[in-house]
Every structure is written in structure tokens, then in C-alpha cells.
Amino acid sequence: MRWCVVGRRGDGWSLVDVGADGAVGTALPVGDADLPSAIADRERTRAPRWVWCDTPHVYAPLLGAGVRVARCHDLRLVHQILRHAAAVGAGPAASALRSAAEWNAPPRAAPAPPAATPGAPTLFDDEVAAAPEPGGVPESIDAALAEFERQRAALAAAQPSSGLARLIAAESAGALVAAELTAAGLPWDADEHDRILAAALGPRPPLGVKPERMQQIGADVRRHLDAPDAPLDSPPRLLRVLRAAGIEVASTSRWELREHEHPAIAPLLEYKKLSRLLTANGWTWLDDWVHDGRYRPVYVPGGVVTGRWASSGGGALQIPRMLRPAIRADPGWVLVSADVAQLEPRVLAAMAGDRAMAAAGSGKDLYAGIVESGAVATREEAKYAVLGAMYGATSGEGGRLVPRLRRAFPAAMRLVDDAAERGAAGGTVSTWLGRSSPAPDAEWNAAQAAASLPGASARDEALARRLARERGRFTRNFVVQGTAAEWALCWLAELRTRLAGLDPVPADRAARASGPVFARRPHLAFFLHDEVIVHAPLAQADAVSSAVEESARAAGRLLFGSTPVEFPLDLRASERAEKS
DNA sequence: GGTCAGAGCGCG
DNA sequence: AAAGCGCGCTCTGACC
Q1: What is the 8-class DSSP label of residue A532?
Q2: Are residues A195 and A123 in the same domain?
Q3: Which portions of the sequence form the region Disordered (predicted)?
Q4: What is the β-pairing status of strands A569-574 and A72-74?
Q5: What is the pLDDT of residues A457-468, one digit of tens each?
Q6: Is the dihedral of CA A295, A299, A304, A306 positive or negative?
Q7: Which portions of chain A are predicted below pLDDT 70?
Q8: Which residue is closest to C7 in terms of CA–C1' distance?
Q9: In this complex, which residue's CA is closest to the C1' atom of nucleotide C2?
């Protein structure tokens, strides 16, 4: 028995074993209240790969009940991958999968910010079970079994060399990690957050009152503009006031304002910075998202076309660096933070088998290595050249430097240039493990068709060329960003498994706010594209640091086998994730 | 009363 | 000095 499919039947649940040969076992009915213990029992005795419709929907309540599982297969996420994957081909298995439109659904609506009191409603509450959120995939056991069979058939029909099997395992592991990150939460020092806000904005004002510092700086701006009522919070109205004051700008954005000499500019930029801090991550955000010493954002695995995660609620992917000092371990615990140095160019070097680029990255700093190779003169140039190569820069610093990179690293550049060419021609591209880019939409195709007609106008042709170039830049970046996301998923999955193997600490040293599954164990607390933070008991700091390093090496091997490309980490263990 | 696109800026 | 990928969130102002 390899798999156990979980789905709804009647008022409760049904568990159905599926063997390696696809043989379907007898259904075991389980009531709502008994699902956590039924899953925990099987996890202990047989450890199947759990097959379910939508991980957050099923797994979040399990975590709340103290149940962790090792492996799953998320039918919704896997469907999204297989539906578009070029490696699946166009045979009957692929057609059957693609015609199951009900599985081509976005994740369920994000839950509201967590309630101030613990014990938020769960799947097992009658109310929630009776009225599932709209937008989700089917959840019945019959629908799940049928879809699982379609997916197995589609995968069997895929090119054997494709990485799809690894991709869907990694994607599903990511779904488990995402649910666990929300359940455990990121340890957040609300007092430190308040201190940072107060240092920048002044003390917390009453509702509807602007913070002291914003009032002062706003007054400075208005004085310098000679406009006592200048509306600083409305870009279109502010723009008119600026132009009236002789500042010739086309927008009120920072990069344009910075180019002008006027006494109002400096305080205005400062005002905008403070305004951003207040509205995006001020006291209201703190009230909404931090409870019980934990920040619990909602992550959306696979939420970006490239395979990166998105977030929905809480803004997990946009925490400003100036608030990072508020990330603080519980007493007796420590934060192990790690990020990969230049993940995307390293991934590109490995994909392309570019030996020169691999050699340049053999130290800790790929950009320094590129300077040593003689391709460019300074580290800054190396950075702009590499970003320009991956994003498709045509002008500016990046555009100027890319040709030099093309001479120094021809294999790597050929890979991204080919991806751009295919995209510009309306084709699709795929990541290393086989996630394919979406096909062009109808509007794009129509524009290309219009430009190729005999009577096409110059405007039609210009539009078609611009759209083709834009799509080329997208597919150019897709292969790199998407494969980097796959590396990160493998890193997460490996790390999650290693952390689960470490011994729990005694109950008197528990971090209770991390929830029943993680209170006594090191656990992932944060993930952002190429960085992780693990919250760990102090005594396990070294073991966790080793696990983070080992997982990074394992991720490189899992994707690329034996490659000369290294994926070095910046790693530190301390009470705070970042110095204040 | 509500929805919606754009501007602007935070992150990688 | 500023153009080149992928996002989410908040605010504003136009609109129904």
C-alpha cells in the first residue's frame, strides 16, 4: 500500500488505500471528529502518501489537532502542473486530465485574519463543513479517486526523463510546509515592533490622527511648497501642487522626485516612506496579524505562474527589512536564518551546464567570481549584467553589459536567449523539472495575427513586436525563476524531513504558541523565495544549522545530480533573525 | 452604498 | 542613473 486517498463521503470522511499497481482497497468510513486520530494511526503504522483534494483545507485542522504527516499528494496543485506540462503530451491520458475542468480551480478563499482568541473555526465545525468556501476543487472521495487515477495515467504517459514526478512530490511537500508555517507562526516581538514604529513615526496616535512625525514632516513639505493645504496622500492632486511649485515631474514616484533639486523633495520622500510604513505595517497590521507572540500569514504554494509561492493576507512576502528585528525567538529558543547567495544565476549555471559560470560561483560570491573571470570590472557591474541577462534588459546599465556576459558565459546566455526566442514566437517553455509556462492568451495571438495580415498598419506591427518582446522577457525569466523555485521547494522538503527527525525537548521548555505539533520541536517559521528561518530550542542550534546546510546540498543533488555548481548559504543562529 | 483600475512601494 | 522579471497590499478617485 503506497497511497491513502482522503475525501468526503456523506457527513463524514472516507479513507481508501490505493496500491502501487493502482488497486483500490475498501473504503473506511470515518466521522468528522475521528479523522485526526484515524490519520495519526495510519501515519504511525503504515506512513502512506496521503492523497487529498486541497492541503490547507484538510491539513490545517489536523495540525490543530496535533497530527503531522510526512508526505502527501495535493490533487489541486498537481492538477495545475500536469494540465499545462508539455512533458505530459497530448495523448488520451492528458486529454482526460485536461477535460476535468472542475479541478482547474484557484485555492479556496483566504481565511480572515486570525481571531484574537485561539480556537478558530475548523473544518470539523458543522458550520464550515456545511458551507465550503467557493472557488475550491471537489472534495468527495469519488471525485478524488477519479482525479487521482487521471493524474497517475497522465504521469505514466509523460516523458520518462521529465522531472514531473519529483516536481509533484516537491510541490505537495511545499503545501505541507505552507500549512505548517501558518500553524507554527513566526515568533514576533510586538513590543519591539512598536518601538520601531515609535522611533520612526512617534507614539501611536488615536484612531484617525496622523502620527506626530508625519504631521511635522508634512508641515515642512507644505511650507517648502508654499501650499498650506497640499494633499500629500493623493498622487494626482499632489502632482498638480508639485508642478505649480515649479517641480517638473510626470509622476510622484520616488525615483523621479529624487532627480529634482528643491527643498520640498527631501521631506516629501521621508513623508512617503513613513506613510508607507504606517499604512502597510503599522499598528493596525500589528493588531490584525500578530497574536500570542506569533505572526501567522497565509502562504499560497504555486500561487505564481513560475511556481513561486504567493501570499494572501498578512503580506508575508513583503515584510520590510526595517521590521526584521521584531522577529525574535522565544526564551530558551533560537532562530536559525539562512538565505542562498545569488540563487537564480547559480540555478541558471547548473541548468545550462555552464562550466565557466560554475567556476565563477565556486566561492561564496558569484558576482566577485564574475569580476575575477575578467568579464566585467566591478561587482556592481557583474550584478547588473546578471540581472539584465535574466530579465532581458535592452538598455541602461544592464543592456550595455549583457553582451560581455554573452562572451564570458555562452552556454548560460544561450539558455535564456533560447527561452526568450521561443516565448516571443508564441511558444511555451519549461522549468528544469517540467513546469510549463502558460500559452499566450487570445489577445496576444490576435495582435500577432493582425500584424501579419497584408494590410497591417505600422501601429499593428509595432504593437505586435512590443507584445512579442514582452512575452520573450517573461519566458526568459520563467525558466530561471521557476527552476529556482523548484530548488527552494526541494530545500524546504529536505529540511522539513530532517527537522522532524530531531528529538523533542521536555515539556517545560516548550514554545507553546507554536501549536501542539511544534511546541517541543524545531520548526520552519518563515520562507521567502530563497531564505528560511527555523525556530529551534537553543540546545539544537547546531543540529539545525547542519540540517539547513545539508538540505541545501541535497536540493542541488536532487535537481541536478552531480553538478559543479555550488549553492552556498549565508547562515546565522541568534535570538533575533536580524540585527536591529 | 459598492466595485475597480491605477499609482506607488514593499519583497525576492 | 534607472529599465528589465515575478508578486501583494493600501489608498485614491472614478464609476455604478
Answers
A1: E
A2: no
A3: 105-136
A4: unpaired
A5: 998 999 999 999
A6: positive
A7: 1, 109-135, 580
A8: A310
A9: A396
